[in-house]
Amino acid sequence: QVQLVESGGGLVQPGGSLRLSCVVSGLTLDSYTIAWFRQAPGKQREGVSSFTPVDGTKTYAKSVKGRFTISRERPKNTVYLQMNSLKTEDTAIYYCSTVRNKIAVITSPLNPLTYEDWGQGTQVTVSS
Fold first, then answer.
1. β-strand partners of 122
2. Is the dihedral of CA 57, 91, 73, 102 positive or negative?
3. By CB distance 3.0 to 4.6 Å, which of 6, 23, 38, 52 could disulfide with 92?
4. Which of the pair, 89 or 31, is modelled with greater confidence?
5. Euclidean distance between CA atoms 16 and 4, whole angstroms
6. In this model, does residue 115 exceed pLDDT 90?
7. Helix segments in 1-128, DSSP class H
8. Burial (CB count within 10 angstroms: exposed 0-12, middle 13-18, buried 19+), residue 28
């Protein structure tokens, strides 16, 4: 059974940083793509970043490129999202998700409909 557990969210001031963690169990990420998504109140879930370990491909939404970094710690089967220079508009619940590699991952790496297994989310609030 696949399980994803996010942590690391919290309250931070604009310009601050947070590092989110996603611990994955029940599968090994080598044959999967893992991604971070977020959903703000009243808005649709949007893709933030994805990582395909087998070829090292990383994708970022335009709104976070240059500020967020996705990475993996292989022995711990954990994926991180380092978030720097946070803005108030980054406030949302952040989710991690995985899918076994397929064509849709190449064409739509940040489309939530591409993904299958989801964590419960962690709240990130950016406010002064």
1. 94
2. negative
3. 38
4. 89
5. 26
6. yes
7. 103-107
8. exposed
